[in-house]
Specification:
Helices cover about 25% and strands about 20% of the residues.
């Protein structure tokens, strides 16, 4: 018996360690350094209905104990994911979490429907990305809208649904309760905190998009606090992330209430 294996939403993971969406892309870039087969799973790069070029550069800025990114969900679209990435991923012996993001409720539901016949093990609905002007964080900051998009996606798929929550809210527990009430099988948190850096030589923000998502060890204490709050407020499993950089961090965030861990560093 594998002592590290976990059951998460009815899906068996060989261990609770999962690269967060965006950190490992679709796995191809990093497998030469670390085999995907050793991971519990992979949450693939945020996937949209159609191809997205992302935000213009600069879109990465260093910060103390972390970094800002404003990539803007650059990806090839769901059809490319299914036709090009999935045939490779299914050979790796690990669980596949499809992270999806839509500009409208209808787009989110359509994305989930298109994944229905695939080998994806679990869908992660991103309602928390701070780097897109349509959808994204807008879904994750309002209880009613968060519930509506969760319900629409849940109705469109038979796969387990995990909703990724934004920390950029007054009460993350209220959002978590809303998505739980509307059919979410799990929640994942936290996504990045909204931040900004200014080039003091030019007086302009370093990022072309002005603001971006802060990740890295700097956000870890916020992640631990929010995972603790949410795990005590809902009856569905929590996948913890946000600044997890060491095994000790993973243990700590699981002690706070997470059943599994996503490493949210960007390299």
């Amino acid at each position: 018996m594998n002592r590290l294996s976990i059951d998460f939403c009815g899906v068996n993971f060989k261990n609770p360690v999962i690269p967060a969406s965006g950190t490992f892309g679709y796995g191809r870039e990093y497998e030469q350094f670390y085999p995907l087969s050793r991971l519990g799973g992979i949450s693939v790069k945020g996937t949209t209905l159609n191809r997205r070029e992302g935000n213009p550069g600069p879109r990465v800025a260093e910060t103390p104990s972390g970094m800002l990114n404003s990539v803007g969900l650059q990806n090839g679209g769901v059809k490319k994911f299914l036709e090009y990435e999935m045939p490779n991923l299914v050979t790796k012996g690990t669980r596949i979490i499809a992270n999806i993001a839509g500009a409208t409720v209808e787009e989110c539901a359509e994305l989930a429907s298109m994944l229905e016949g695939s080998a994806v093990d679990l869908i992660e609905l991103n309602i928390s990305c701070p780097n897109v002007k349509a959808g994204g964080a807008a879904f994750g900051t309002d209880c009613t809208i968060a519930g509506q998009v969760t319900r629409a996606v849940k109705d469109a798929t038979s796969k387990p649904l995990m909703v990724k929550l934004s920390p950029n809210v007054t009460s993350i527990t209220d959002i978590a309760k809303s998505v739980e009430a509307n059919g979410a099988d799990a929640v994942s948190l936290i996504n990045t905190l909204l931040g900004m850096r200014i080039d003091i030589k030019t007086g302009r923000p370093i990022l072309k998009n002005n603001v971006g998502g802060l990740s890295g060890p700097a956000v870890f204490p916020v992640a631990v606090r929010m995972v603790w709050q949410v795990s005590n407020a809902v009856n569905i499993p929590v996948m913890g992330m946000g600044g997890v950089a060491t095994w000790e961090d993973a243990v700590e965030i699981m002690m706070a209430g997470a059943s599994a861990v996503q490493d949210h560093r960007r390299t």
